[in-house]
Amino acid sequence: MLVLLAFIIIFHISSAALLFVATIDSAWWVGDQFYADIWRICINDSNCTEINDTYSDYTTLQAIQASMILSTVLCCIAFLIFLMQLFRLKQGDRFVLTSVIQLMSCLCVMIAASIYTDRRQDLHEKNFFFYPEQSSSEGRYGYAFILAWVAFAFTLVSGIMYLILRKRK
C-alpha cells in the first residue's frame, strides 16, 4: 500500500509539474526564427513582445491563459486536499473530492489546448500568426503545447485513480 501511495503522489506531482511547464514556457508554437506561447512572441531570441489587446485573437488567448492557470491551480489544490483526506478520511472511504477537483483540472487543460489547436488552424488558413511579418505556415507546435496534452492525459488518469482509490491500512 505504501508503494501505491508513493506512486500516486509522484504521479500527481509530475502532473502538476507538466502543467506548470506548459503554462509558463514559451514553446507553444515554434519556427526557425521565432517562438510563441500564450503570453508572448519572440523573434530571433531577442525581440520579445508581450501579447496584449492589440492582437486580433487576444480574447481567445485570454481564455487559453485563464484555463491553463485554472488547471494548474486546481491540480495543486487537489494535491493538498488529497494529503488532507489521507489523514482525515476513515478507512474504506474514497477520495471523491480530490477526484472531482483533479478532473476539473483535466477539463480546463483540455479546453485550453483545444482552443489553441482550433485557433491555430484558423490562423493557418489565413497564413497569419500574431505577428504580421511571420507566416504561421513556417512554424509547428512546440513541446509546451505537447506537454499540455500530456498533462491532460496525466490529470485524467490521476482523477480516475482517485475516484477508484479507497483508503486502506
TrEMBL record:
Chief location category: membrane
Similarity comment text for this entry: Belongs to the PMP-22/EMP/MP20 family.
Keyword Translocase on entry: no
Compartmental location: Apical cell membrane; Cytoplasm, Perinuclear region; Golgi apparatus membrane; Membrane raft
Stretch forming the signal peptide: 1-16
Keywords attached to this entry: Cell membrane, Cytoplasm, Golgi apparatus, Membrane, Nucleus, Signal, Transmembrane, Transmembrane helix
Membrane topology listed for this record: Multi-pass membrane protein
UniProt-recorded name of the protein: Epithelial membrane protein 2
Subunit structure: Interacts with PTK2; regulates PTK2 activation and localization. Interacts with ITGB3; regulates the levels of the heterodimer ITGA5-ITGB3 integrin surface expression. Interacts with P2RX7 (via C-terminus). Interacts with ITGB1; the interaction may be direct or indirect and ITGB1 has a heterodimer form.
Transmembrane segment boundaries: 63-83, 95-116, 141-165
Gene3D superfamilies per the UniProt record, alphabetical: 1.20.140.150
UniProt-listed Pfam families: PMP22_Claudin
Organism of this sequence: Echinops telfairi
